[in-house]
Write a structure and sequence with these properties.
This protein has helices at residues 12-39, 42-63, 69-80, 91-109, 116-140, 160-171; strands at 2-3, 6-7, 143-149, 175-184, 189-196. The protein is of the alpha+beta class and 198 residues long.
């Protein structure tokens, strides 16, 4: 059945729905249960979900034109270098953006030579790798904070224990280590980068 020469329904509809559900399932696992659970940044939830969904449908639609591998990789690269001009995106968020685009492209552009078992396995490996790396990162990573410190006499090497104690009391964190950066003797302030565990 056609409308103005365009079929209303074809076999690719089922493929699109099944692949979209697979894509949405793994997208939710990555964005909601791995990224958001650890970062608590709601502003990126909207972005990651929408980019994952739009890229999937864009690639699936363009697949009808039988894009070659070069075109597919070019499309992937264009989306991969997206930057939002209003604010810089941190490396971790850019990595998640790359992963979201990657699984959307993979789920949409896989052809008949790739079974659903292979698609689900590839998605699962990415999901598990992210989860394991996030767990490892959470246990080993140190967070850093730059502080403008005004008690200038504490920056002397012999007063480092006093400086560490003072910083811990003021910031309310256990400091693993710290680095003294620029020192301004005219204003009696020093920039100190403190490293601590979450």
């Amino acid at each position: 059945m056609e409308l103005l020469g365009i079929p209303l329904f074809d076999d690719d509809f089922y493929k699109m729905v099944i692949r979209f559900l697979i894509n949405l399932f793994f997208l939710t696992g990555i964005v909601k249960f791995i990224y958001y659970k650890r970062s608590q940044k709601k502003e990126y939830l909207f972005t990651f979900y929408l980019i994952g969904i739009v890229v999937f449908f864009l690639c699936f639609t363009l697949k009808k034109y039988e894009l070659d591998l070069g075109m597919a990789l070019g499309l992937f690269a264009i989306f991969g270098i997206l930057r939002y001009r209003t604010m810089p995106i941190e490396v971790k968020e850019m990595t998640y953006l790359f992963v979201v685009i990657g699984i959307a492209v993979m789920n949409a552009l896989s052809n008949k030579k790739m079974s659903y078992a292979e698609i689900i396995t590839a998605n699962s490996i990415i999901l598990i790798a992210l989860y394991v790396l996030e767990l490892y990162w959470e246990k080993t990573a140190l967070l850093s904070k730059e502080v403008l410190y005004e008690t200038i006499e504490n920056i002397r090497p012999e007063n480092h224990a006093r400086l560490k104690k003072d910083l811990e009391e003021r910031l309310g964190i256990e400091i693993i280590r710290f680095e003294i950066g620029n020192v301004n003797f005219l204003r009696d302030v020093a920039k100190i980068i403190v490293y601590y565990k979450n």
